[in-house]
Predict the 3D structure of the following.
Amino acid sequence: MSRRTALGVLSAGAMSLAALSLPGCAGGRGDRPLSVWTLALSPFFDDYIKGLLDSFSKANGNIPIEWVDVPYEAIDRKLMAAAAAGRAPDVINLADRTFARFIGMGALADLNPLLPASIRDGYLKGASRIGAISGRQLALPWYLTTQSVLANTRLLAKGGIEADALPDRWAPMLAMAGDFKRKTGKPITTLPLGFESDIPMMLLSDGISPLIPGPDGNLVSALTDPRILAAIEPWVGAFRQGWLPREAATGGSSHLNKLFVEGDVATINSGPNFLKRIAADAPDIFRTTTVRPAVTGTLGRAHIAVMTLGVTTQSTKPELAARLAAHLTSSEAQLDLCRRAVVLPSTSASLADPLFSAPPPMAATVTTEAGTPPSKEEIDAQVGIARAACAAQLPDAVAFTPAMACWPDLRRTFEDAFKRVLLDGADLRRTLAEVDTSWNGILADRPADISALPLVGPVGGSPRAATTTPAGAAP
């Protein structure tokens, strides 16, 4: 799900970085400082990053380290120029969706031979999966976000629903949409459908893969599978009947928060950091907001948005660069970061800290006079509740973003076509068949195998792969 974390998530355009893997591109770098690029952390986290880099430098003979913080909008240009000049950074911070572009380009080094298993095994499996491709670990997970449900209890009450009675799966939530809209004139929930679409990852969270292995082992499209049509049809029907807002087709993830602040949707899946914006922009909405665990697919696993750290293949000091990446993502470093920002850690040791436990009940019930801004105690209590709800889901959560170089192109192709279904009345079955053909063309040029997919079983059930039955076969 395309989400902005509290620190931000990169949304990059297409790039060609073949120079990263060309022989000889890293020549002459032996005397240069070890370099690390991060995304949009400066100036708010300057002290934090500089402190970590200083401690690593001192522990390694006072080696010089160069830190460059890159704005999201500049990452394509800067990385392309640096790679072409043989000056790509040793350590690179990428969002999960940007990281996927690098898989087929040979841009990132395998960390398995560079780091001991004792370090690699300390990360949450659902988070580290994004970097685990065909037996290689191409990146370490850094900070994470997952979601909780923010529910407007006053609006829910108008529809005759108590927050505690809200379903925790998408299918029953959608089944309530028509009745709720008739009673209140407002949607019970909303999702990005046509832009930054959640649909492909929701399929995976239901245990239905839109990609399956072909005869040669490489992935092919499965969008003509009848089960995919059956899973998507209810969303199309709800949108066409007006049970979902029009913004769901074009508004991306940002429309969730906008509609919630305006009191125009009853529930959204959103991050704990958004509560601070609600408190500032809509105090009355804040006071009617309660927090619940995120709504999920039938597997019961929440989606994780992951920031990663990898070592580029241009690094002339890959062992040192890998240790620096491990230092920045260590349990101690991540816990410090989580105290400074409303994000979640990717290590089990960090997650065990009391910071991720719900605050005491009294702290969560501080009240002030209606119409006045919420107090710091009120805000901190609500954020604490939401952070604890998100943290409780992390051990079972999964990064449902496929780790494929061509995934952004597959997703864009799907979104462009699906918007026509939502807005222009295009036939869903025919559209899926057309996208299926387009996907197979893209996959033929940039193949990937089954290891790129997050194939997991249901929470509490026996492990199993997500559905990979060929299209047209019996489920």
